[in-house]
Amino acid sequence: MPEVRYARIAAIFLRTEIQYAMAYRANFTFGIVRLFIVVGTSIGAALILFQYTDAMNGWTLPQMIALLGVYYLVQGLADLMFMPSVTKLMEQVRLGTLDFVLLKPANSQFLVSTRYVEPTQIASVIVGAAVVALGASRMQPSPALSDALSFALALACGVALVYSLLIAIGTLAFWFVRMDNLLVIFSSLIEAGRFPVDIYPGWLRATLSTLVPIGIAVTVPAQAISGRVDALGLATIVLVGAGSLVFTAWFWRRGLRSYTGASA
Amino acid sequence: MKLLRIYRALLTAQLQATAQYRAQAFLYVLFSVIRPIVFLAAWVAVANARGGSVGSFDVADFAGYFIALTLVSHLCMSWFAWEFEQDVAQGNLSPRLLRPLHPIHYAAAANISYKIVTSIGLLPILLLVAVSFHARFQTTLEHLLLFIPSMILAAVLSFLFDWVQASTAFWITRSSQVSFVLGRVSFIFGGQIAPLALLPGVLGTIAYALPFGYMLAVPADILRGGVDPARGLLLVGAQALWVLLFYAALQRVWRAGVREYSAVGA
């Protein structure tokens, strides 16, 4: 069973990095305190906006809080593994040390995507999930089981979209070497995920739905848990999410062919 | 006179250094407009849900405010505390303390030249946002005359505030954590999520009692013509008071800090 083997490898990577992080315990604790400050002030910002209205573009306060939870959940998952791994990948391409990864007897895309982990982000994922639950518990009527299921599906696809984008940026390094600036663009645009994508003007909404799909990656799962997503919306994100994974796998192999290595 | 000559030399050198990384600098500037646009869009949605306005703000006023805020926060940026932590931890500060010129002048020159280089990129973007959101400015000549001292005081205040924060590195190893917490306080009380007039209840009062609004929201409100000139003058006076306060604080903290400083290898 290759899946079991890959899950075990990922677990080993995670455990190693947690051990590293635990050597700097105060730093780890403060990372978690920081997270609570960030999430707390963001909820505060939403509360201030909702002092003046009951619904923003049709989104009620509980739905908005659930959306904020999804935002931290998706961001946490991206920052947990993908972001540190892609940053490291670009360095390895530049230095030629990617050779060592390619020599290992496992799928290279899997290895570069999961090897480096930022353990404090586990807390971000947990807190994000808790905030989603908080929002969902305040919804009237409360979400049905089918809403929870379509939420899980949409969330998985949203994470797949963000993952694909990050790996694609990392893969571009095979041709252009310095891709750090594109990551900066991603980190700035991710800020726009804290509100539903439908409040933005056309050009920004289009960007957040296509080129940098953080908008739909956050908005569609939040719609799902709020019972506001239709079958078409759900089908679209499933198709796009799956399609992006297929594309990245192809793009990665294509990029590898352009890799010249350390001594070539 | 001597200081003027020194600054001319420092600025020439720093401008050349900054210009090396202009592509990167432009990119950062380009995306510094994202956060204000995000909150602008949110307020537009709230205003639309209420039939067009929140308090004295309608959609065009919100646009004017957040555009002014973007400009102000760009011109107020000060990032010294983030570098200083490393400088103290690794002892890089030592050679700079030996020079005849106080390190603050090098930082000031770097700060000013960064803003000169990048502002050229920011203005067209702000213009574009202003047009696409139909921003309204009720700025009169009096407002403009008030804005100039207000902006300068805000930038000086933010710079001094940054230096006081940075000085905590003499006592705390990870002083950037202090900067982080203060950044989040500024997120709420500096006017980044809402104009100070719209902070509900006691939050608005707290905001005017803290220094953060005087670095961001106050000059932004003056620039968009959102306060009457008499009140504007009062706010500029308050800014001047904060500057004096932090100038005095920095002198004490810095002197005590340098005495505390034990460089690696000393």
How would you describe this protein?
The complex is a heterodimer of chains A (264) and B (266). Chain A is mostly helical and 264 residues long. Chain A has one domain (2-256). Chain A is 76% helix and 2% strand. Chain A is built from 11 helices and 2 strands; from the N terminus they run ααββααααααααα. Chain A has helices at residues 2-22, 25-50, 61-95, 98-102, 108-114, 120-137, 145-176, 180-189, 202-209, 214-225, 231-256; strands at 55-56, 59-60. A two-stranded antiparallel ribbon of chain A has the order 1-2. In chain A, a hairpin with a 2-residue loop joins strand 1 (55-56) and strand 2. Chain A starts with a helix and ends in an 8-residue tail after the last helix. Chain B is an all-alpha fold. Chain B has one domain (2-260). Chain B is 76% helix and 2% strand. Chain B is built from 13 helices and 2 strands. Chain B has helices at 2-20, 22-32, 34-49, 59-76, 80-90, 93-98, 103-132, 141-167, 176-189, 202-209, 212-215, 217-223, 229-260, and strands spanning 53-54, 57-58. In chain B, strands 1-2 form a two-stranded antiparallel ribbon. In chain B, a hairpin with a 2-residue loop joins strand 1 (53-54) and strand 2. In chain B, helix 4 (59-76) runs antiparallel to helix 7 (103-132), helix 4 (59-76) crosses helix 12 (217-223) and helix 5 runs parallel beside helix 8 (141-167). Chain B is globular and about 60 Å long. Chain B starts with a helix and ends in a 6-residue tail after the last helix. The interface between A and B is medium-sized, with 32 and 37 residues.
Classify the oligomer: heterodimer
Q: SSE string of chain B, helix = H, strand = E?
A: HHHEEHHHHHHHHHH
Name the strands of the widest sheet of chain B in spatial order: 1-2
SS-based class of chain B: mainly alpha
Tally of distinct domains of chain B: 1
